[in-house]
Amino acid sequence: xxxxxxxxxxxxxxxxxxxxxxxxxxxxxxxxxxxxxxxxxxxxxxxxxxxxxxxxxxxxxxxxxxxxxxxxxxxxxxxxxxxxxxxxxxxxxxxxxxxxxxxxxxxxxxxxxxxxxxxxxxxxxxxxxxxxxxxxxxxxxxxxxxxxxxxxxxxxxxxxxxxxxxxxxxxxxxxxxxxxxxxxxxxxxxxxxxxxxxxxxxxxxxxxx
Length: 209
Hints:
This protein is of the alpha/beta class. It contains 7 helices and 9 strands; from the N terminus they run ααβαβαββαβαββαββ.
C-alpha cells in the first residue's frame, strides 16, 4: 500500500498522540504570525494554537480524508489538500512552519532534503521552523525491524508497518545535517508515545531561517 493510500484509509479514525511543545514555540512566534502546518493531518496542532490566541493558521496535507475530518472538527484553521510536493504559496510568505511527525513518513533522504528546501523557500527571512519527529531506538524490537529493512531501503532506521505504511527513525546527526541551513535555536530529546501506542525516542527542534 502506498503512503498516501495508507493515510487516506486511516484518516477517519487515527488519532495522533505526540505532544506539541507549545510553550517553546510561543517563545519565538508572535500571535499575529502566519503559521503553516505542513502535513497537518486533521489539524489538531493548529487547533491547539488557536486556543492559545493564534488566528492566522493554515494547514496542508496530502490525505484528503484528513483535511475533510479537520474541516468538520475545527472551523478556524485554513486547511487545504496538498496536491504536489511544492507548497502552493509564494516565496518568503510564511512566518513559521510546523512539521509534526512528517519526516518520519518520508524514508528517502533526498525527498526529505527537498521538503526542507521547499519550506525554506516559503519562510520569511528570520522565520521559524518547528519540528517534532522520531529518533532511533535501541530496544530489540526496533533494532530487529531496522535490520530487516536496511538492505531494501538502503537506510538503517526505515521499517514497514504491518498495515502498509513506511516509516523512518533518525540518527540525530542526520537531523542536524538535514537542517544545516537553519540557525538551530533548540534541539531537545524527548520520549513519545507513537500513534500505535509504543514508546519511542524523539525530539523537538526549533530553527530560524
